[in-house]
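Re: export button greyed out
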Amino acid sequence: IAGITQAPTSQILAAGRRMTLRCTQDMRHNAMYWYRQDLGLGLRLIHYSNTAGTTGKGEVPDGYSVSRANTDDFPLTLASAVPSQTSVYFCASSETGGPTDTQYFGPGTRLTVL
Amino acid sequence: GQNIDQPTEMTATEGAIVQINCTYQTSGFNGLFWYQQHAGEAPTFLSYNVLDGLEEKGRFSSFLSRSKGYSYLLLKELQMKDSASYLCAVIPNDYKLSFGAGTTVTVRA
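Workaround output, generated via the alternate export path:
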């Protein structure tokens, strides 16, 4: 069982380019999340999805979009990357999205925007 | 926004005990998580508290006082592998985890 996989592991991107970070889980969890982690700021929620077909905005959604066409996949797209989007991105999932759920995190994608 | 505070860094000796404090001011409270994150890796679940008191799990314990907006994570019999960041996260009324910036613990021989 792989759990949650993310791709790519790392990426260097020119400003203005479009980029999609991929996330796949095999635990049949209903809820999925995207976070960014920056030094001194901790993990901040970008977007989330409580079930396939629905998405919601987190704390820092600007410049990012997501889709949830099926249970397993939750891609994050940067339409036109900017240097302030340089960060480590973590995808996570939980069983129902309820308040007592444990979230399970993927290995992360390190993104550098130049 | 939510406010979750924890110390930035702590250092302790192998075999010792370290207590990581977390204070929070949030829009409602539905529970508190502690996660461990080794450098370059994903956060992994350590503990969950929703009622006041101490939860013990092997060498790790977590305490919660809802009236004080306070939690701590206690690491006993420290081992070198415990060198990591420890993240405090609170569930406010919107049910979305809100994380503190994390405490980096360094264990020295």
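The CA atoms of residues 16 and 81 of chain A lie 5 Å apart. The button fix ships in the next patch.
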